[in-house]
Amino acid sequence: MSSVLENATKHFRSKLDGTLLEIAVPEWETTVYYYPTTPLKDESSILQLQQQGKTVEALVQTLIVKCRQADGTRMFKPADRVALLNEVDPQVIVRIAGQLNGIDTDTLEDIEKN
Questions:
Q1: What backbone torsions phi and psi does residue 32 show, to the nearest 5 degrees?
Q2: Average pLDDT, stretch 79-96?
Q3: C-beta of residue 67 within 8 angstroms of C-beta of residue 34
């Protein structure tokens, strides 16, 4: 492995060193935790859905791959997709996904209106 690639992977691993960021979700009486970055493999599943025009599915996929418990384990499983799509408040999903993706609150408000 080249020194540049070693440095690149070391940098990425440092962002996954156990430091979790938090989003309070009072509607769910919980806190969602997430890492400051996500592996490109996980991001690609979200991007693929967006490119197909499946925005809602992309938002749900964002929650599935990024939301964590306090111990760093995934909060949702792929099998939770149907319930998230059909049985969870869309405004809460949009807000959480927006925060996970670093979207500012003004942009989130515009998305929620549409």
A1: -95, 135
A2: 97
A3: yes
Domain ranges of the chain: 20-113
Range from 19-23, 33-37, 97-101, 109-113 carrying the lowest mean pLDDT: 109-113
pTM: 0.81
Contacts of 28 (CB under 8 A, 6+ apart): 92
Which CATH class, in words, describes the domain spanning 20-113?
Answer: alpha beta
Tokens found for residue 31: 């806190």
Contacts of 73 (CB under 8 A, 6+ apart): none
For 34-47, b/e burial (b = at least 16 CB within 10 A) is bbeebeeeebeebe
